[in-house]
Amino acid sequence: MSAEQNSTPETRQARDTAGTPETAETPQAAGAAQQGPRPVRLTAAAALAALEGLALVAGGAWMLVEGLAGDPDDRQSAVTGGITLIVLALLPLLAARGLLGRRGWSRGPAVITQIMALPVAYNLLQADSMAIWAGIALAVVAVAALVLLVNPATTQALGIKGPGRSQGAGE
Hints:
The protein is mainly alpha-helical. Helices cover 70% and strands 0% of the residues. The protein contains nine helices and no strands. The relative contact order is 0.15.
């Protein structure tokens, strides 16, 4: 059993106050992750996530207005779809804010957003209209954001450690 598993809450607290943080959640580790300038890759990933969130808000608002003021085939579906898109926009918008604030939790929602965008892009690419260009743009943004989010500089800036790379792993 490792020393980390055998330690009591009092010894963990004493070790943390001595300047040897166990995990990325301690205040010392959080402060260390936020020292220095924000990497450009992290800022770009946040910008792409925010762009997707804003696009979802715009699409949802358009569907909502069309459903209420226009002449849709099914008013209830248009309103429900618009509200759904606006609510879904919260995920990438919150992730973008977290990425800018260097919060480790924000990478998960940002990655999930990109993974959800890929099937949507594929379906748009199957269309025979202007939706093809939207599918190309969405696919490029989603792949670029995924590459930025899994980049080692991004994970280091967020204070995310890979499996087996925790402070106490070698003890």
